[in-house]
Write a structure and sequence with these properties.
Helix content: 25-40%
Distance between the termini: 54 Å
Shape: globular
Oligomer: single chain
Number of helices: 17
CATH superfamily of the largest domain: ATPase, nucleotide binding domain
CATH architecture of the largest domain: 2-Layer Sandwich
Bound molecules: adenosine-5'-diphosphate, magnesium ion
Radius of gyration: 29 Å
Number of strands: 26
Strand content: 15-25%
Structural class: alpha+beta
CATH class of the largest domain: Alpha Beta
Length: 619
């Protein structure tokens, strides 16, 4: 069969743009040589007329404000009078072009937004061509659902100027829903919450058998991540002036640096509780500050509240209540902020979809649309059942399966785990997919950390891990420590990146390695158990060593020593198991006299395979 030329899916964003293509295993973003897929939608012109695009251009924004064009999407298909309000925020010269259209004057040359967007599109196109080793001439490009005909037309023209035949213009929220496979729904109402760099929009969609209808849209074209950066910049500059003098001024280089610091701190606060900022102001003046997530959240709360008001309006325009929404999808880099996720979840009373990277989901959906146009059939086989088993990594590197392969979906499974080290306050949860017995032979789907567990003896905390795979094949994994109520969760797409061939290969491999895998898994179990038995013996000895006769003590020490040696050197689980049993027996006199809780439990003669699964240790 002749290979069809690839159709590129493109998310042409206000802040960032990127491309994706459809592969056998599903949609995939195009990355450059450094693995970076986002292209900042920024174009810089130098005095000789040389053009730079993306990250390099963005670095010039402050030092060369008149010749660095960003947010060009705001001008697409608009007249100068349409964009009056935007002008105060755009440092470059926006002028009237043909028929009053908004254009940009860079170094004396008037350029239409289409032309400028075409530069970004061409960058994405050439990256794709380089990655795929073929010419790219056809594309699907996304636009906000609220774009009118003129704006859509301008986007099409931008594509043409870049040498692309634009097969379809797709709404961004529709693309996001396509990326999640929601086109297969027969009758569903979907809310798409998109918080990007400079814009917020929410769309309510209805989908039935592949046909999407926009029920309502709402939003604010002046609300996004830039506002959050500005909050941090204000905080920092205010404090710098307080500390080092009111008269201090910030030149272009400092302002650029501040912007970068603020954004980096913001991004860090999506992951961690604090972010350290350190700014060297010269002359020995150094500003340092640890910003906490709480502080940041307080500063952005009112912005987030505004987005919720827009959501309520969108709902009311669609004549729907929050409870009538079947799925909520998060789109846009700013939805990585935990406060945003919580707020959306609370409003819609359901966990929003976050499994697909929010700043790539639109491009991935554009690629899905491109695949549909190219007549590619998606593997529906993967969707009614879990094609491969799902579980987590347990102590010693074993795969603890919670949901077996070929389970029908939706499905939920819960298991209780515990800690393996005294005073352990956090556990890493690695979500695995595959049929092999060792974690290292399975696919790592995602991971998260449950922190803030109150210090307790090993084995005391009860950590409930729940897998919930819903009707769309999205897997929610959550962990909750019962005593403290501390919880954490993550969402992943288990079927993403899998082909039928790959599934077949994984299953075949597991059969081929079955015997070796079983031994390896049992060895891990027996080692874990040995570790616990030795720990219990140590504790008992510390409490009541004097009740042993010299002979008993000598026997016990020898038995313990043998277990220790075997744990380090041996890979025969049966031999280790026998040694552990001997040590257990040798410790018998201790247990008969005095037992603490742990001791009695450990010595109750459990066989290795009866053990509670345990979660992997953390330092
Ligand atoms: P757009 O659709 O407007 O082009 P994106 O969806 O790419 O923009 O979102 C860009 C915004 O997302 C920027 O303000 C960026 O700082 C923000 N962002 C990216 N990652 C994170 C993160 N981990 N936490 C908070 N904000 C983030
Ligand atoms: Mg976007």
């Amino acid at each position: 069969m002749e290979k069809q030329p690839t159709i590129l899916g493109i998310d042409l964003g206000t802040t960032n743009s990127l491309g994706a293509i459809m592969k056998d295993a599903g949609p995939e973003v195009i990355a450059d040589a450094d693995g970076e897929s986002l292209v900042p939608s920024v174009i810089a012109f130098d005095s000789e007329g040389k053009v730079t695009v993306g990250t390099a251009a963005r670095a010039h924004a402050v030092e060369n404000p008149l010749a660095t064009v960003f947010s060009i999407k705001r001008l697409m298909g608009r007249s100068l009078s349409d964009v009056r309000e935007d002008l105060t925020h755009l440092p470059y010269a926006v002028v009237a072009g043909p028929r009053g259209s908004a254009c940009v004057n860079v170094n004396g040359q008037v350029r239409a937004p289409q032309e400028l967007s075409a530069i970004v599109l061409r960058e994405i196109q050439s990256r794709a061509a380089a990655a795929l080793g073929e010419q790219i001439t056809r594309a699907v490009i996304t636009v906000p659902a609220y774009f009118d005909d003129a704006q859509r037309h301008a986007t099409r023209e931008a594509g043409q100027l870049a040498g692309l035949e634009v097969l379809r213009i797709v709404n961004e929220p529709t693309a996001a829903a396509l990326a999640y496979g929601l086109d297969r729904q027969t009758d569903a109402t979907i809310a798409v919450y998109d918080l990007g760099g400079g814009t917020f929009d929410v769309s309510i969609l209805h989908v039935s058998e592949g046909v999407f209808q926009v029920l309502s849209t709402n939003g604010d074209t002046r609300l996004g991540g830039d506002d959050f950066d500005r909050e941090l910049i204000d905080l920092i500059t205010g404090e710098i002036r307080e500390r080092f003098g009111r008269e201090i001024t910030f030149g272009p280089a400092t302002r650029q640096a501040l912007r970068n610091f603020a954004e980096a701190a913001k991004i860090r606060l999506s992951q961690r509780e604090t972010a350290d900022v350190r700014i060297d102001l010269g002359d020995g003046r150094v500003y340092t500050r640890a910003i906490t997530r709480e502080e940041f959240e307080a500063r952005i709360q009112s912005h987030v509240d505004h987005t919720l008001e827009h959501c309520r309006r969108a709902l009311s325009d669609a004549k729907l209540t929050a409870s009538e929404i079947d799925e909520v999808i998060l789109v846009g880099g700013s939805t990585r902020i935990p406060l945003v996720r919580r707020a959306v979840e609370e409003l819609f009373q359901r966990r929003p979809y976050t499994a697909i990277d929010p700043d790539r989901v639109v491009a991935l959906g554009a690629a899905v649309q491109a695949g549909i146009l190219a007549g590619r059939k998606r593997d529906t086989l993967l969707l009614d059942v879990t094609p491969l088993s799902l579980g987590i990594e347990t102590l010693g590197g074993a795969m603890g399966k919670l949901i077996m392969r070929n389970s029908t979906i939706p499905r939920t499974a819960t298991e209780t785990f515990t800690t393996s080290v005294d005073g352990q306050t956090s556990v890493d949860i690695n979500i695995l997919q595959g049929e092999r017995e060792l974690a290292e032979d399975c696919r790592l789907l995602g991971k998260f950390q449950l922190t803030g567990i109150p210090p307790m003896p090993a084995g005391a905390p009860r950590i409930q891990v729940t897998f919930l795979i819903d009707a769309n094949g999205i897997l929610n994994v959550s962990a909750r420590e019962e005593r403290s109520g501390r919880a954490a969760a993550v969402q992943v797409t288990p079927a993403a990146g899998l082909t039928k061939e790959e599934i077949g290969r994984v299953v075949k491999e597991s059969v081929r390695h079955a015997r070796r895998d079983m031994t390896a898994h049992r060895l891990i179990d027996v080692r874990n158990e040995s570790h616990r038995v030795l720990g219990a013996i140590d504790k008992a000895l510390a409490n009541a060593a004097d009740i042993l006769t010299d002979e008993q003590r000598r026997k016990l020490d020898a038995a313990v020593e043998r277990v220790r040696t075997l744990m380090d050197t041996n890979d025969d689980p049966d031999e280790l198991y026998r040694a552990m049993r001997d040590a257990n027996d040798a410790a018998g006199p201790l247990t008969r006299y005095q037992m603490d809780e742990v001791l009695s439990k450990t010595f109750r003669g459990k066989s290795a395979k009866d053990l509670d699964p345990r979660i992997g240790t953390e330092e």
